[in-house]
Amino acid sequence: MKKNSTNLRLRLPALIFASEVVIVVLYACFVTYDDHANALLQNNQTRHMENSFYQNYPFFADIQVMIFIGFGCLLAFFRRYGFGGMVFNFLVATFTIQWAILIQGFFQFFYDGKIHLSVLNLINAEFACAVVLISFGAVLGKTSPVQLLIMALLEIPLFGVTEWAVLKYLRINDAGGSILIHIFACYFGLGVTFVLYRPSLNEGHPKVSTSYQSDLLSVMGTLFLWVFWPSFNSALTFKGDDQHRAVLHTFIGLSASTITAFALSSMLSKNGKISMADVQNVTLAGGVTVGASVDMMISPAAAYVLGVMGCFACMLGYKYLSPVLAQKLRIQDQCGIHNLHGLTGLISSLAGICAILLATEETYGPSLYETFSHQAPPEGDPQLMELQQLIPDLEAGLGRSAKEQALFQVAALFGTIAVSAVGGMLTGVVLKLPFLASPSDEQCFDDEVFFTVPSDYDCVNVLSETRKAENE
Amino acid sequence: MKKNSTNLRLRLPALIFASEVVIVVLYACFVTYDDHANALLQNNQTRHMENSFYQNYPFFADIQVMIFIGFGCLLAFFRRYGFGGMVFNFLVATFTIQWAILIQGFFQFFYDGKIHLSVLNLINAEFACAVVLISFGAVLGKTSPVQLLIMALLEIPLFGVTEWAVLKYLRINDAGGSILIHIFACYFGLGVTFVLYRPSLNEGHPKVSTSYQSDLLSVMGTLFLWVFWPSFNSALTFKGDDQHRAVLHTFIGLSASTITAFALSSMLSKNGKISMADVQNVTLAGGVTVGASVDMMISPAAAYVLGVMGCFACMLGYKYLSPVLAQKLRIQDQCGIHNLHGLTGLISSLAGICAILLATEETYGPSLYETFSHQAPPEGDPQLMELQQLIPDLEAGLGRSAKEQALFQVAALFGTIAVSAVGGMLTGVVLKLPFLASPSDEQCFDDEVFFTVPSDYDCVNVLSETRKAENE
Amino acid sequence: MKKNSTNLRLRLPALIFASEVVIVVLYACFVTYDDHANALLQNNQTRHMENSFYQNYPFFADIQVMIFIGFGCLLAFFRRYGFGGMVFNFLVATFTIQWAILIQGFFQFFYDGKIHLSVLNLINAEFACAVVLISFGAVLGKTSPVQLLIMALLEIPLFGVTEWAVLKYLRINDAGGSILIHIFACYFGLGVTFVLYRPSLNEGHPKVSTSYQSDLLSVMGTLFLWVFWPSFNSALTFKGDDQHRAVLHTFIGLSASTITAFALSSMLSKNGKISMADVQNVTLAGGVTVGASVDMMISPAAAYVLGVMGCFACMLGYKYLSPVLAQKLRIQDQCGIHNLHGLTGLISSLAGICAILLATEETYGPSLYETFSHQAPPEGDPQLMELQQLIPDLEAGLGRSAKEQALFQVAALFGTIAVSAVGGMLTGVVLKLPFLASPSDEQCFDDEVFFTVPSDYDCVNVLSETRKAENE
C-alpha cells in the first residue's frame, strides 16, 4: 500500500470495521432505551399517544430530509463531483450519527450507568451531523472518504464537549444553534482547510465548475433545506408558543433573504445576470441569522430585517471576503461556509444578545422565565413560587439578569470560535498523516478517483471543451 | 438603460429593495403574533400541545414541499429553461408569500388594529402562492423576473379581495379551492397571456422542447405534487372526519386520473406511445376535480368517477382545445393551465353544487350543519339550540337552503371568472410597459438571458442537432 | 394488431378502462367510509383531534414519498430506461392501490356488507403496492406496462389471501413486513422472472448500463427510501413505546448497514473504488433485516448487528449469488431483489424468531402480552384479568408459548415462500400470453419502445460510444 495512493480497498474497510466493532461494543454496554421507548415501564397510567415520540418524530423526519437529501443534493454542484458530494454526504452522515449517539449520549442522556435512547437523541445526533457536514463544505472535493470519516471521528467529541460545557455551564439561549451548530462547524471547517492548504488550487482548477444538471440538482438541495429549515430551527425549543414563533421567524427570515439574494446577485454581476451559486447558497442565509433569537418575541419585522441583513453579509462575503481568505490567509473555503454559516452566525449571535437585553415581562409575561430559563429565580426564591402559580411547570433557574445572560452569550460565542478553530487545525494536522488516501491536487473534484464511473462520465466535459474550442 | 434591454442589474434590485422597504414598514406597523404564538398570553391554563400550531404545521410542511419542490421541478421541463422554471418559481413564491401575509392578513386576520400571525396565515399565504404559480404557468418562458414579480404584486391584492368577498359575503363551500384557487389562477393567467400575445410563437419556437433529463425532473415535480395533494386539499377543512374524507377522496381521485391519463396518452398518440407531457400534467387532474366537494359525503366511488372525468377533460383540452385557443383566440397557454386547472375546476364546481343539492341529514346527521355551515340555522333560531345539544361547537349559520347555497356557488364561480379574467388582462397591460426586461421572441424559453449559465449549457442541444443532421 | 407488436394504443387503454369499470362498480357497491371518516357518526362525544386520521396520516404521507419518489427514482437507474423506471412505477403504484383497497378491504375491513375506508386502509394498500413494486424490480426493463398491470392484477389477490391467512390463522409478529412484504414480493418476482427467462440477456445487453445522471437520480431514490424507512417499519406497530422502538431500531439498522456497504463496496472491487450500484441498493439492507423484530426489546446493539449482517448478506448476494442464479437457475433478477429483500428477509425472520424465544416478562413487563399479542392468555383465563388490571386495553390472545409462536413464524415463512414462488411462476405463464406487448430482447431496457422520447434521448450514448471508439 503506497503512502500516497488513493486506493480505498484496505483503508476504508479497515477504518469502518474497526469503528463498527468499537461502536457495537459500546452500544451493547451502554445504550439502552429511554423510558418512553421501554416496554417495561408501560403500565395502566400510560397513555400511548402522550409518548414523547409523537412530539419529536415529525421534526426528526423533516431534519432527516435536510441532512440526507438537502445537504446531499446541495453538495453535488460540481460537474465531475456529483457522486462525491451526494454519496460522501451519505457516508459521513450515517457514520456521524452512530458516533454522536454515543458521544452526546454520554454527555446529555447518561444516567444509571446507561445512555437512554429516544428520538430526542436522534434529533441531537442529526444536529451533530449537520455540524460535520457544514465543516465538510470547506474541504469538499479535496479529501478522501477516509479523511472525512476521521474528521467526523475527531469533530464529534470536540463538539460534544463544547455543547455540554456551553449548555451546562454557560447555559445560553440558542434555539436554532447559531453558535453551537453554525459557528462551531464553520470555524472547525476553516481550521481544517487552513492546514490542508493547497497553493496550486488558488490558480484555478479545471474541474472547479458546474454543469447545467449539477446546478439544477444543487438548487433542489437548497429547496429541501429551505422548506424544512423551520423544523430545524424549532426542533429543540419549548413546545407551544415558543415553537410556533420559531417556525414563523424562520419562514419570514428565509423568504426575506431569498428575494434579497436575487436582487444582490443580479446587481453585483457584471451583466446583470443571476448566478446559480448565489441561488444555491445565499438564499439560505436568513435561516441562520434568525437562529439565536428564533423563539423570542422579536417581532415578525425583526425576523424580516435579520433575513435581509444575513443575506447582505453572506453575499458580500462570497464576493469580497472569500477570495481574500483564499489568497492571503490560505483558507480555501470550498463552499463558502464562512459566508453562509460564519458571518450569518455572528449576526445571529449579536441579534440574540440584543433580544435578550430587550426582553421584558411586559412583552413576555411570566413566560419570560420559560424562554429565558436561566433568568428564572433560583430554587428557594419566593419569587419562583409566585411564578409557578402562574406557570406550574416553570423550573428554577439561576436568577441571572439579562446583562449577565448577555455576557454568557458572548463568552459562549468566543469560546466556541476558539475551541472549534483550534480543534479544526489539530484535526487538519491529523488529516495530513500519510495513508489516508488524500487525493493529489489534480485528482481533486473528480469522482473517478474514488468511484467506478459510468462511461459517459466526462462526456459533458469533453463536449463543452470541444464547443469552446470551436467557438474560439 | 435601454427600453428593451433584458439586463436585470438595476431593474430587479430596484423593484425588490423598494418592495422590501414597504413590506418591512408594514410588518413593523401592523403584523403581530396570533394568540397561539404570543408568549404574553400563556398562563396556567395553557396546554402547550394544544397550541393550534400542532394541528396546522404538518399540513403547512407538506404544502411547502408542493410549492417549492413540486411546482419548481414541474416547471423545469424545458430543455433550456430549467433554471428559469425552477428558480423563478422560487423567487416568485418567496415574494408572494411575504406580500400575501399582508394582504390576506388585512382581510382575514385583522383585529385590534393588527394582523395576527400564525401558521394558519402561512398556509393561506401558500395557497395565494399556488395561485400566482399556476398563473405563471401560462406565461412560462416568455416573461422576465421583473414582470413576474409585478404580476404577483398585482394578482395578490385582487385575489385577496376576491377571496374575502367570496368567503365573507357569498360564503361558499370550496375546501380544495377549486373556484378560489384553480379557477381564479387559471383565468387570471389566461388574461395575462392574452394581452402578452406573441404571434410569432404560434409558428413554433426552436427552444420549445424538452430533454431527457428535464422530462425526468419534471415528472419528479409531478410526483411531489401528487404525493402531498391530499394535504393541500384537506389543509383548511374542518378537523376530524371532514379532513379524513378530504384525504381519502383526493387520493382516490388522483389515482383514478393517473391510470386514466396513461390509457388516454397511449390511445391518442399516433404510434401508441406514452407522452411525458401527459404524465407530467394530466395525471394530476383528479386532484382538482375532487376539490370543491372533497370534504363532503360524496362516496369513494364518486371521487373515483370525478378523477376519471377530470382526466378526460384535461387530456382532451390539451389535445384539441389548447391549439384552438392559441391559434384562434390568441391565448398562448404555455403549460396548459386551462386544461389542468380551468376545465377541471369547472367540473369540480359543478360536482360541488351537485353534492350540496344532494346532501341530506340522513347521510350527514347533524354534522350536515358543520360541513355546510351556511345552511345551519341562524342565531336565535330554536333549531340551532337543538342542534347544539348534539354538536356543542356548532356555530350559527345563515339558514340557507341547499338550493340557495347552490346559487351562491354559481355566483361565486362566475364572479371569480369575470374578476380574474379582467384583472389578468389589466395586469397584462401593465406588464407590457417598457423597462420591465421583457425578453424578445427569440430570447424566450432561454436561460442564457437571465442567468450565468455553465459552459455545457447548450451542449445537449448542439449534440442532438448534430445527430439529427447526421440522420438526415 | 400483431401478436408481437409493442404498440400500446389498444391494449393499454382496453385493460385500464376495463379495470376502471370493474373497480368503480365494486367501489359503488361495497366501499363506504370508516366510522372515523363518516359524518353520520359524529356526535357530542366526538373529539375531532382524536380521530384515528391524526395518528395514521403522518406515516401514510411518509410512505407515499417512499412509494412514488423513493421507488420511482431508484428504479430509474438505467441510462436509457429512466422514463420506464420512474413512470411505470407511478402507473403500477396507482393501479395497485386502487385494486388493493378492494382486495385487502374484503379480507380485513369488511363488515356489515361493506368495506370501511380510512387512512389505515390506504397505508395497507401502500404496503401491497410496495410488494408489487419490489417484484417489478426483478423484471424491470423486460416487460411492457400491460404485463406489469396484469402482474399487479394477479399478485394483489394472492398477496391479500396470504396476508389474511397469515394474520388471521398463523398470527405472526412481523411489524416491518419482512415475511409478508419482502419475502413474498421477492419470491413472487423471482417466480415471474424465472418463467420470463430470456437466454440472450445472459450474454450481456448493450443497454444495461447507467449514466452519470441516472446514477445520481437513483441515489436520490435510495436517500428518500432511507429517510422514511423508519416510518415504513413503524406504521402498523402498536402506538407508544412499540412504535418508538421501531423507529430507533430501523434508524440504527440502516445507518449500520450503510457504512458497512461502503466498506464492502471498496473492499470487493478490484481497484478499491466504490460502486454506485452498491450505494443505491446495499445501503438499505438494514431496513429489511430489523423488520420482523423491529418493535421488540432487542436492544439497540442488536439492531446494529442486524444491520451489519443484512448488509453482508446483501452484498455477497450481489457479488456471488446473482450471477449464479442468472446463469444456472435461469433467474434473471434485474435489480437484485433476492439480495435486498430475499436474503435480508430470511435473516430478519430468523432474528424475529430469536427475539420471540428470548422475550421475557422481566424485559417487557406485562406489555409482553401486547407486543406478543398471541401469547396473551385467552378469553376467560384468570391471568388475563390480572394483566388487564395492569394494562386495561390488553386484548385476549391465544395463550401460545414462545416456542409455539416461533413455530408459527416458521410456518408463515415457508408458507409464504411457497405460495409466492408458485404464484409468481403461474403469473409468469400468464404474462407470456401473446398480445401483451412484451418487448423483444433488443427492445429491453429502452424507453423508445413505449415512450415518445426527446431528440437528445440517446445523445449521451452516442457520445460515450464515440469517446470509447476514440480511446481505442
From TrEMBL, chains A, B, C:
Which UniProt keywords are listed?
Answer: Ammonia transport, Cell membrane, Glycoprotein, Membrane, Transmembrane, Transmembrane helix, Transport
The residues that cross the membrane are 12-33, 57-78, 90-111, 148-167, 179-197, 209-229, 249-269, 304-321, 342-360, 406-431
InterPro entries per the UniProt record, alphabetical: Ammonium/urea_transptr, NH4_transpt_AmtB-like_dom, RhesusRHD
Q: What is its main location?
A: membrane
What's a single GO CC term here? plasma membrane
Q: Where is it located?
A: Cell membrane
Membrane topology (UniProt):
Multi-pass membrane protein
Tell me the Gene Ontology biological-process terms attached to this UniProt entry.
ammonium homeostasis; ammonium transmembrane transport
The chain positions of domain Ammonium transporter AmtB-like read 23-435
| A GO molecular-function annotation | ammonium channel activity
Origin: domain of life: Eukaryota
Give the family, as the similarity comment puts it: Belongs to the ammonium transporter (TC 2.A.49) family. Rh subfamily.
What the protein does comes down to: Functions as an ammonia transporter. May play a role in the elimination of ammonia in the gill.
- Name the UniProt record assigns to this protein: Rh50-like protein
Q: What is the lineage of its organism?
A: Eukaryota, Metazoa, Chordata, Craniata, Vertebrata
